[in-house]
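B., you asked whether I could sanity-check this one before it goes into the benchmark set. Here's the sequence:
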Amino acid sequence: MKTILLLLSIISVSYSSIITGGVKTPVYSESDSKHAVYYALFENDTLKISDVKKGSFLKTRKNCDIKGNYFYKIIKDSKKTTIKKKVLDGSKFYTLKGVNVSKFNKIEIDQAGDILVVNNDKTPLYVALSDPNKESKATSLGFIGFDPVLDFKEEILVSDNKEIKYYLLEPGKDLEFPISGKGNLKIVSRLLLDNGTSKQNYSYDVLNNDKLVRTVSGMTSLSKDFLVKDKEILLPSRGNSSVFVLNNSDHKIKVKNPSNNKTLLVRFLINKSAVSVSNL
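And here's what the prediction gave me:
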């Protein structure tokens, strides 16, 4: 059995402003697996941001299970301002611990100086600062594919001169493999569709050491870029990505396809800058 050893995984983003407080929490997009660093504030937590530049944007997100409006306070020069924002749908945004979060709202800081952000809500507030003197870009988590499973059905997807191996996960089947160490695991999933099939919903379960980590669900449609090699009757859907954070221990990853009639294609990736592979 091939075991993957993950050595290091966290990528951080630095700002010229000094940020004190909160819990550093990368938020990533399933569409491109890029992430930006936010700071999670729990009930009554504060975040001090020193030397904020005029024209900076303060971005906030909430957990997606929160509906309606949310509130937080900004204190500057002893003046308190209550901010009201609406929770925006964010079906493709997650923390690395698998928490589904909303799209961001933002406000512009119109005066330079220090600010204090206060979360008086019972649910977490995720806060980030966009510095006007730096181009604001999400950072790629830097993944590379690997083959953790032996003796499992495979399909090769082709696009132009590129070939990518996926594992075939039939209805009611499980796929299991070990990983050791700390890092980020990315799973790319697709459906096998009939010719002319429109959009379809699907889901699968991911377990770590027999404990359910997340049920991944999504909607997909026919891929315009990929075909199944040597099998014209099989048509792959567009790919969806999910990222999972792994702590520094031994892991038994299991992917379960509970569907009665949908066949999945799955591919696995890990941090390319922090991986060592060992055959045990």
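One thing to flag: Residues 154 and 246 are 26 Å apart (CA to CA). Otherwise nothing jumped out at me.
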